[in-house]
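Supplementary Methods, section 5.1.

A reviewer requested that the exact input to the structure prediction be made available. We therefore reproduce it here, unchanged from the version used in the analyses.
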Amino acid sequence: MLTVFNHPLISHKLTIMRDKNTSTKDFRDNLDEIGSLMVYEVTRDLPLVDVEVETPMCKMTGAKLAKDVIVVPILRAGLGMTAGIMNLIPTAKVAHVGLFRDEETLEPHTYFEKYPKNIADAYVIVVDPMLATGGSSVAAIDMVKKQGAKNIKLVCLVGAQEGVDNVEKHHPDVDIYLAALDDHLSETGYIVPGLGDAGDRIFGTK
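The structure derived from this sequence is encoded token-by-token as follows.
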């Protein structure tokens, strides 16, 4: 299932990020803030268990998360969304999946993997700012499923329909969340209008 957020704050902050004149710092800050706003909604269906606590007045039954949350940023650009999510869920664990895209074939290649031990029982959030062809997202979801992950959501900032279709074709059980669904992909596989190369803009490498 695809969810595209229609929220004034997300739209406002995303417009700042799209502007080619936005500084690296402002780009990162707004990405952090959008990540927090998005994950608030993404985690709406997290399972809870009862827990007894004692307030200053009396004992009561409250609730806590029933499972660990594991954030899986697709390196390197996915790291830019991790801080905003961790601000809201500071107890979350972080896995890392390193992928790079062949500039000619646009196919993803793996160069790094590291996972917490309990990923099979956790609520897993795969994050990457851009969902273009969908190749990297499909590959990352393949990788976490091989580790036993079952409850997986994909959270991206900007996507194109081609990428959405690719993920839905290979992983129909994974919900997709976007801040915006853009018009199309360029001949070189970039999202249009998009916001450029998210990794370069996050880390100031161009």
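Helices lie at 8-18, 24-42, 79-88, 135-146, 161-170, 198-203. These observations are discussed further in the main text.
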